[in-house]
Amino acid sequence: MFLIGFNEARSGGLLRGFTEWLVVRKGECSSLGWQALVLDEALPHIEGWGRHKLRSTNSQQEKEAVQLLLSLLHEFLTVRDDVMALARMYAQYNSLHSQPPPEAA
């Protein structure tokens, strides 16, 4: 909640591109927001999507999820502050969304 509030206070500037960066990092299109993407990566063996996963976690898992979030945020901010890296990330994001969806088997 702190990050969401801080991002809002910065008119969305702090986390602008974070969701797109996470999607590119994962290598597949997603309509989930950054919160759900981080929780899905941090808690892959827990059922549910996004914040619903938190219903089944213990304090150690929550601590690990926060540590992952901070690590990912630090990595993202490094990319965001590099104009060329940011441009490459958005090009990859656009490429992911330009591909036709996989055919159903």
Features:
105 residues; mainly alpha
Poorly predicted runs are: none
- Calculate Rg over CA atoms: 15 Å
In terms of structural class, how would the helical and strand content be classed?
A: mainly alpha
Q: List the secondary-structure elements in sequence, H or E.
A: HHHHH
What composes the largest sheet? none
How many structural units, i.e. domains? 1
The beta-strand count equals 0
* N-to-C CA distance: 40 Å
Q: Could you report the average pLDDT, rounded to the nearest whole number?
A: 87
- Beta fraction: under 5%
Q: How many individual helices?
A: 5
The percentage helix is 55-70%
Basic shape: globular
How would you describe this protein?
This protein is mostly helical and 105 residues long. The protein has one domain. Helix content is 61%, strand content 0%. It has 5 helices and no strands. Helix 2 crosses helix 3, helix 2 packs across helix 5 and helix 3 packs across helix 4. The protein is globular.
Layout of secondary structure:
Elements: H1 2-9, H2 18-26, H3 34-42, H4 59-80, H5 83-98
Please provide a brief summary of the model.
The protein is an all-alpha fold and 105 residues long. It is 61% helix and 0% strand.
